[in-house]
């Protein structure tokens, strides 16, 4: 490698380490975003679900996640052999102790770091559909299982040369043939429309239906307890997303710059579009709408960040903001309790970004690309939906999903973590602690119709 190549690889390595750090920041940012949207008595639990995911998925990714996602021994194009690079064996250093170089010329361990953060945030997104009513231990078990059986296979299928990629053995190649070993119409998922948002949004829908509604769903107003937290979380998500999308160029180059600008364009347009819908529909634009519009724009542009121009990114983002704003109302129409609008934002905007990009980037192959994008989006939904259903039912039959009705009524924070977010809840904490200390491990039964209804949904 000559001096110019060495300098280039060093610059790319630096950018990718920064990008990995930015994406890692997105999970604590999600904790703030979700925590602020939750009620006062469930904010800590909501944030702990993100932090717990960060712990569980990081561990399993190092042990078998990298191997399942990017191993060379593919199992039918669906997933790679989890034992090939188990524990990052043969992925970090060679027999002589030298760092193994990846395809981009820098150390392969940097790509491992980058991809690990994607697996974490993708899994954590799902938790927003379950606010205030599920056991923390069951969630942690689900996080490890879902990453293993849904996220890692999808990462392999899309980015590891599997069924949803541009490889010769992919679905796109079966549909339209190949040229020089690649599909003639290659599917586009630059940074995770199918792998991240469609899969997480589908899983959120499945679990919201399976776990059931909160005891006060549609009976009392569900207001965020801390809107400044929500806006701060959205701002940090936007900041981290530059690593999410810009880092997916795997180099400090013009493509990363295009992804940066397109990300900003789509996000700004989506936020304004969401606020416009609120103004027309409700008479007032809201801070929650601004924060949600930001996330909708980020989700919409994720699969398309390197395929569009800044102007077409504005259009994609604006439409995504409108669709997501309308999409959050689906839970009221169909009666499922998607607590923090994971389905409305991530699934709806993820589907739009994945499919809609074909309308702006297809060129002479618009119709064929549109067909390919629809197929990979539906495949991701069906796969994630089936596997999530199996995992969810297995955990429901063994560990159980729901906390006790009385615990949900009094607040999940104190019952799952024996903590409260605010000092003014200290009286409640002392009361519950006293019951626990006296051997009463559960709150006294609530003699109410709500309590009976909650038990019937367990």
From TrEMBL:
InterPro entries: Ammonium/urea_transptr, Ammonium_transpt, Ammonium_transpt_CS, NH4_transpt_AmtB-like_dom. This is Ammonium transporter. It is a multi-pass membrane protein. GO terms for molecular function: ammonium channel activity. Residues 433-458 are annotated as: Disordered. Residues 15-422 form the Ammonium transporter AmtB-like domain. One of its GO terms (cellular component) is plasma membrane. Belongs to the ammonia transporter channel (TC 1.A.11.2) family. It is found in: Cell membrane; Membrane. Keywords: Ammonia transport, Membrane, Transmembrane, Transmembrane helix, Transport. The keyword Transmembrane helix applies. Residues 438-458 have a biased composition (Polar residues). The chain crosses the membrane at residues 12-34, 46-66, 112-132, 139-159, 190-212, 224-244, 256-276, 288-308, 314-330, 342-364, 370-395. It comes from the Bacteria. PANTHER family: AMMONIUM TRANSPORTER MEP2.
